[in-house]
Amino acid sequence: MKPFKDIxxxxxxxxxxxxxxxxxxxELGAEVLKIENPLRLDVTRNWKLPSEDENKKTSAYxxxxxxxxxxxxxxxxxxxxxxxxxxxxxxxxxxxxxxxKGKQERLKIPFSELQALNPKLIQVxxxxxxxxxxxPAYDLVLQAETGFMSINGEPDGKPLKMPVALxxxxxxxQAKEAALTALYLRQKNNRGGYYEINxxxxxxxxxxxxxxxxxxxxxVPQRIGSLHPNxxxxxxxxxxxxxxxxxxxxxxxxxxxNLCKALQLExxxxxxxxxxxxxxxxxxxxxxxxxxxxxQKFNSKEAEDLLTEKEVPHAVIRKIDEVFNNPLAKEMIxxxxxxxxKMYCVSSLSFRKKQDY
Length: 357
Known about the structure:
By secondary structure, this protein is an alpha/beta fold. Helix content is 37%, strand content 16%. It folds into two domains: 8-206 and 331-346, Crotonobetainyl-coa:carnitine coa-transferase, domain 1 (Rossmann fold, 3-Layer(aba) Sandwich); 234-317, formyl-coa transferase, domain 3 (2-Layer Sandwich). A hairpin with a 5-residue loop joins strand 7 (234-239) and strand 8.
């Protein structure tokens, strides 16, 4: 499926959010040209694990979001290099950047000049806090400032960051949506446009139910581990007989009834403490101990078979190496070469066209 085979994307962005946008279009057939300053390459080329070869030109981190691209080194402060860039702009559809306030003008490539060369050009610029400040930001900073760290972790522990740069990932999705919206509008008016996306508002938009819990009730979300503030048993983690952990995600009363039947705890179905979700939330600790005593008698395969048969949402907690033994995960592994080095990453696409109508 290559719907964007006639689209050309120029990527001046670095790190994760911007390059994720470029990779998305590359996977869908677009020509994506990643331009790096030869004096200061994408910083993630050097974000290496202790086990990585320090002499390699790329890192595993860099590999994660640079599949399918062509690479070009240009110093836009140099007249000749800037002219090469401007020539590429003439035939481009989308320009992806992550310029701080004033950076684009200092490089003497303001959008007004680019648009004069190519009225159909769409620019998507990613910032930390919008374009009225030059304050830099990384994902961790935004996790702290937008409340994510305050609600992540155990009740008696410190605030924790998520182990994936999720704000970058979510912001990248916003940027993709902006680019797709711009392409749609361009079909109607034959004009491009300039779009700004910032990490801060992308993070706030992603607070979803945690934000609405606060806005509608005044309740400030707290750290509660993996538990869900509105649903139970949802997020409770149980130690099984073989030492593995199982998590439940029971989202409805019917699913709870099926859980009780699977574990031969039918007496809980009409128990006033647990018969409805809100009551289970209020009495979740008591419910946890009852379920834990029962589940610890099963090994992971027995528990999975039992709960799957009754259609109870659950999962055994798996390590990353176990994940990539799953055929669904294996399908998403991509390989490519960057600077003559073999790299691997996972696809940014989790949708497939299955049938024409």
